[in-house]
Design brief:
heterodimer, A: alpha/beta, Beta Polymerase, domain 2, Rossmann fold, 6-stranded parallel beta sheet, 49% helix, elongated, B: 286 residues, mainly alpha, two-stranded antiparallel ribbon, 8 helices, globular
């Protein structure tokens, strides 16, 4: 970038460039954000800027009139976070023009995420852009780039399998429940035990609209404690067998050395609900639910290995789609950059122009 | 070339072939999407099956004009009418319940029933004249009965989908076609609705027919009465057991599939039990 030319830029760090202990120091404190955005808005030569801050990345996208503006942006951020500029430069990722757009598209599609193909990032990109609009730091270039990014991210989602299939055990379990129950609005979930993975799975069910959640643990106070945390109800352990038929989804996550749900229990429970399916998710080791439960009619059983294998298969399927998604993203970025160049004319120089030399001290793409 | 008629000069069978081609196209669309592990366009599938239905309706209308009544005079027409009923029901259910893959399976059913009936010339070589004796109530009775068979055909399809989904979830085969199947509960709900609707329609049909039968029992072949009543009783029993939660899940689905096969086979004795003399071939009907 020449001293007087403007270009679209990206500066930031992510899980690709910074380990978690460094990333922890990059996330701005919420109470400091307003002042920081005011500082950003006042920086000379930075007419448009968006900050994308997630647990895995802090990135700035915008239009810079000169490399000096980018140096000031970096200094402002380091000052906010109490970072040494050299330390930030060492983990900093920079790109401009078409490459910066391609990176943004890859981020929005979930291609750059730690969990490949995750979709939450698109919402975070949208939030970041909405924030910039509200602060009036999004102008014609950012408007066009971000609006097209949302459109292209949807295109990638529709035309590739990059976002298909869940890749966490908890979400795989929820997806399986959807295959059985259609929607979870009327599903009653029973969590057996207070294991961490069981708790995560229960939360995943709640976040997908499960009708109700009940917690049962060998010690009632522990069940009540967890129930309070999860906004659920507690069930005394000795009542579990008798009430099994009242639930549609049972998540086993105890540390019990022997099975806690037997085929006999389930046979008795199914007599209360022969037409309604019963779904068991056994996340415990040793297992909580007797394996031959799976042979009963209208009963479905998945254990930790089953769920992990499905998650791994989904992950592999997503990975196999990366090349296709990358080709789409590259083509779209190229087309979008050409449009922006044509729109801006001489104001937006070619990305191949020697630029950012004074700023390029860290890792670059 | 200019012709006087706005419609091409096709026979009714030609229109029915066109309809079959549409149903086959729907099946091919679904299969290609499945092989590519993609969800087919529901709107496109609906449009293709809708086009097939329109063509089939026109073909059957042409046939009806020629025979001056509801075209239910031979095995060919019975198969065509059953397929037409199932497709009509899909067009309603598909739009209302949006069950994924139902269009795919319905197009397969439509293609099989119509192409088999068209491919066997003997089924349409002869046709009984004046099947209904000029009595519109008997015609109504027959049309209702065959419409209920269309409902049971769709029930057999959704039961197959149910069995596939259970297999998928029990055996942990979750990819390919299985990935797009509707949920177990959705399929169970639709099965119960179709079973209830089928029994209701067949009951109405038998009620209308029984009035005619009671007036003149000699006019109706006993084999037909027994076969029809047996099919009705079987479906009514299945419905009663389902409502009482005595017959559910996989067993219910298998019985719905098996019962439809039996019901389809029962059409032959019902058709051949009619006592009217055969009419000349109808292959040239327009």
């Amino acid at each position: 970038m020449s001293a007087s030319a403007a270009t679209f830029f990206l500066i930031g760090a992510s899980h690709h460039t910074a380990p978690i202990e460094v990333r922890e120091r990059l996330a701005p404190a919420p109470d400091k954000l307003a002042a920081f955005h005011a500082t950003l808005g006042a920086l000379p030569g930075l007419p448009e800027v968006v900050m994308l801050s997630t647990c895995n990345r802090v990135e700035f996208y915008g239009v810079a009139a000169s490399s000096d503006a980018l140096v000031q942006l970096q200094q402002a951020f380091c000052s906010l976070q109490g970072l040494a500029p050299d330390a930030f430069a060492a983990i900093c990722r920079q790109a401009q023009g078409r490459d910066a757009i391609e990176h943004l598209l890859a981020v929005a599609c979930g291609m750059d995420s730690q969990m490949l193909g995750e979709t939450e990032i698109l919402g975070q990109v949208k939030e970041a852009y909405a924030g910039a609009q509200a602060r009036r730091t999004a102008g014609p270039v950012l408007n066009r780039v971000f609006q097209k990014t949302f459109q292209y991210a949807k295109y990638v989602r529709t035309h590739t399998a990059l976002n298909e299939g869940q890749i966490s055990v908890a979400n795989v379990a929820v997806d399986l429940a959807l295959k059985i129950f259609g929607d979870l609005g009327s599903a009653r979930v029973l969590l057996l035990g207070a294991g961490e993975i069981g708790e995560k799975t229960a939360k995943a069910f709640q976040s997908r609209g499960a009708g109700s959640l009940t917690v049962a643990s060998r010690t009632l106070p522990r069940a009540m404690e967890l129930a309070t945390t999860l906004d659920a109800t507690a069930l005394p352990w000795e009542h579990v067998a008798a009430h099994l038929g009242d639930y549609s989804i049972v998540v086993g996550s105890t540390a019990a050395p022997e099975t806690v749900v037997t085929a006999e229990h389930v046979t008795a429970a199914m007599k209360k609900r022969p037409a309604d399916p019963l779904f068991f998710i056994d996340l415990a080791l040793p297992r909580d639910i007797e394996a031959n439960v799976a042979e009963l009619d209208n009963v479905f059983l998945y254990n930790l290995d089953d769920l992990a294998r499905i998650a791994e298969e989904n992950r592999a399927a997503r990975a196999s789609e990366v090349a296709r998604a990358r080709a789409i993203v590259t083509a779209k970025a190229e087309a979008l950059w050409k449009q922006i160049e044509a729109q801006a004319g001489a104001a937006m120089p070619s990305p191949t122009a020697p630029a950012l030399t004074s700023f390029r001290t860290g890792r670059t793409e | 070339m200019v012709t006087g008629s706005p419609m091409p000069d096709f026979t009714d069978r030609t229109w029915l072939w066109f309809a079959t081609a549409c149903y086959l196209a729907g099946f091919v669309l679904g299969t290609v999407a499945w092989l590519r592990e993609r969800r087919h366009s529901r709107a496109l599938m609906y449009a293709i099956i809708g086009a097939g239905f329109a063509l089939q309706t026109f073909g059957l209308y042409q046939r009806g004009l020629a025979v001056k009544g509801c075209p239910l005079g031979n095995t060919f027409e019975i198969f065509q009418f059953t397929a037409w009923s199932a497709i009509a029901l899909y067009l309603v259910i598909g739009a209302t319940f949006r069950l994924s893959l139902l269009g795919y399976f319905t197009s397969l059913l439509g293609a099989v029933l119509t192409s088999v009936s068209l491919a066997i010339p003997g089924w349409d070589a002869l046709r009984r004249v004046d099947v209904f004796g000029g009595n519109p109530w008997i015609e109504f009775h027959a049309a209702l009965a065959l419409f209920s068979y269309g409902v049971f055909a769709l029930l057999a399809l959704t039961s197959v989908m149910y069995l596939l989904q259970v297999f998928s979830l029990k055996k942990h085969h979750l990819y390919g076609l299985f990935a797009f199947l509707p949920s177990i509960r959705d399929l169970d709900h639709i099965n119960l609705r179709l079973l209830s609707a089928g029994v209701l329609i067949l009951s109405a049909s038998l009620a209308v027919g029984s009035v005619y039968w009671l007036q003149d029992p000699a006019k109706v072949n006993l084999a037909k009465v027994v076969t029809t009543a047996a099919v009705w009783a079987a479906y009514a029993l299945v419905l009663a057991l389902r409502l009482g939660n005595r017959l559910v899940a996989k067993r219910l689905a298998w019985i719905c599939v098996g019962l439809f096969a039996v019901a389809l086979l029962s059409l032959k004795p019902v058709d051949s039990s009619r006592s009217r003399p055969p009419a000349p071939p109808v292959a040239t009907l327009r």
